[in-house]
Amino acid sequence: MNIKEHDNFMVGVQHALSLPIRARCAELTVLLDRGSLLELHSFFPVLIDNIFGPQGTLAWGLRSITEAQEDFHQLHHFLSPCGPLFKFIYTLLKDPNIKYEFPLSYLPTKIRQFLEYSHGHPFYSELVHINPQTKQIMSLLLNPFDYYIFHFAYHLINPWQQRTGAYVTSWNTVYYVLCCDYIIHFLPTDPQSAVLPVIYYNGKNPLQAIKCSLLDQPTSSGLINAENLSKSKEEAFQKNLDIHHPRNDIWRSETVLTVFTDLWLHSNQVNEPTNTLNMSYTSMPPMRLYPNELPTGEYMRVVRVLIKQLHAFSQSAKADDTHLAELKKITIPMIQGKFYIFLRNLIHRWPLDGSFRLVLELWLTYIQPWRYPPNNLIKYLNKKSPNPDVEDVALAPQNSVDREYVPFIAENLLTYVVVFQQLLPRFGRVDLTSPKMSLMLYRITKVFDQPNLPGYLKEVEQCVESDRVLYLWEGESPHRHTANHWSNNLPPLSPTSNWSTNTTIEGNRKPNVSPIINRNSFLSRDSYTEKKWSAIVKQTIFELEGPNFVYKPLFSNPPATEVYDLIIQIKRSIRQAEELVKMKIQEEEKMYSGFWGHIKYFLQGSVSNDEFTLRDRQKVPMYLQVALQNLMDMFNVTGEIGEIEPESPSLTLNNNSFDMSNDFKFLTPERVRERIKHIKYDGDPDLHPIRSTENPFLVRMLYQISSKINDVHGRTFYRLYHQPTFTGRLMRQLLCPPMTVYKYDKSIPGSPRVSTNLPPRISLRVLASYRFLTYLCIGAFCAWLFGYKIEVYFMFLIVVFLLYKCVRALRRDEIPVRHNYPTQGFGNISFNDSF
């Protein structure tokens, strides 16, 4: 009878998994409540594979379903932290012996190497499944909660699922919202709020050793039997320990924190070198890897939300006296090295375009923990604006950075200084007159020019440099270590004589250092504090950058040449941006002047080949002016030096001159704009991105109608189009001609450009233009004024249109139709491409 009931349960859940999302979630909720523990135990891995598709199978579309779709709320409720799925998971946790295997191949290479060469990690040591014969780690044995969290985190970095989120323009997907929910729910910042529901799972509690040490002492008291006393004592101890063991309060938070940071910040897609990426998965098909692709915008936003919450989670330890406080205290130290390596590689791989804003905001989020106190975090995570990172020039003064963050600045000095040194030359290779680039430069200078922040950075650097001078005076080289196990694979920095480098500088193994040490600073007064910061920074340098790294301060005297180079570039770009704005204003005034110009502007709006509006262009000089002033204030560049023109010989650029107009290998902004003018769309005209002069709803609806007509009558269109009779000539007037289009096949590594032949077809997209709709409405209004019905007006338009096409079809001197299609049917040509 039990076997029959089990079969009936499996049949029911398999049927539920085949239903649409809305019915699927409702049916599974009922079935999961009715199933026995044995049935649920067998079904759980099937459900997880069905939700996430880790092997490339069809998943539930968590990274493609957005808030505007009907299935969003059903999925969100089903997978929420207190929803039906987690209720199912907590039911399975009643049996601590239920375990599931998580393959090691799903883990990033760095984590796998760590597990293979070190078995002492406090989190993974109790999860590894070791082969007793070979003593090798085979997999991870996880309880139901850990198994789900591992799969959820892996879903974001799964190469099979990367393309799912790549085409989604909206960032508010089910996966993103669930990430926010899990991060806030399992990493609470309020000491009074526990992780709900409160459960008592002893699968991770070290009970046996404690029980043995406390219960092996037989005792007796008066009339009470010693054996009964031991028995009652053991039962009471077991119950009390299950309920009050500290691990019960923190193990779910520990899992979410460790798994999310390890899998997302150690992603092979970012941290692995390109030439070794294909060799990292020897047992996996090579088609699963896309080493040339970058993480999606959703990936960047999810990691940024995690960093925000971890800042608040860590700071809330100050007012927390629960067991979770110890976990909060080690949160930032646990992730700071991972984040630094992740960020350095990410900046090195990211292209020089506007999408770099995602990486920039992620970095600025991490280095500003004072912006995310525990009580304000919900406001930042639940912002409903389309782009929460948009920020104009702020006129109000910025708040100063509190002194309590100096330890964080010292421990993360490389994330401030080295990343800034890596980023600043990047802006010398881009067009700063672009609104996106000027805004990014403004954001960096605004953050680093916050009151007190440059001073704290200088003081920490002075502590490090004063200790370094002492080493050099004694004949020792800083960062000289005998260990050779460094293998973080960080990208190289420019081997200049001004800033830090991780490459060998020939003939300059001991660079001359002349720091300006302010003995009146609060750090210099305490020699213990000075040595403490110096030791922390040197240890961080050795662990992250390696023994050959040469650290040089950001705030040197005089400032580095790269700073002057950027100042010159900004001054040039300000003049160019102002001239560009004037030119755009003149173009619009000339284009829309006079009576007909006003009519044209009313019908079409502002039409320009420029991807940015005039309002965006007008903000560029303001962004650059503020960025220039912030940069000069930050590095104490005097007004006289700042006013020197670029042509001044004292500020000539060594080998990085921007005057490369005669170098055919260098793409200047002017040449890039010139090339943009000649770029044309070679794809299907019906699939062209929706223009500003078209109604999006009508474009999509008319495309669906056209596709349906072409699917039903496509063969008839093909046959009639190629007839030499009057019917053929008429069809050639009504239908779109055959053509060859090109697209990039992104399902193949390298995304090759492939051609596709389109047969004769009907296209109704022209009816979606605002110009056509305007003329149509004007005509309908005139017909109404003269007393004609709307039906008569539309019939009149159709008759006139057909008569016009018939007259044109009477011509017999047209060019014969030539085509490359088979005369027998359509071959493999289809009309069912999705919009």
From TrEMBL:
InterPro entries: Sphingomy_SMPD4 (IPR024129)
Pfam families given in the database record: mit_SMPDase
Topology relative to the membrane: Single-pass membrane protein
Biological process per Gene Ontology, one example term: glycerophospholipid catabolic process
Location(s), subcellular: Membrane
Domain of life: Eukaryota
Gene Ontology terms for molecular function: sphingomyelin phosphodiesterase D activity
Cellular component per GO, a single term: membrane
Stretch forming the signal peptide: none
Major location category of this protein: membrane
Positions of transmembrane segments: 792-810
Keyword line: Membrane, Transmembrane, Transmembrane helix
Coiled-coil spans in chain: none
Protein name per the record: Sphingomyelin phosphodiesterase 4
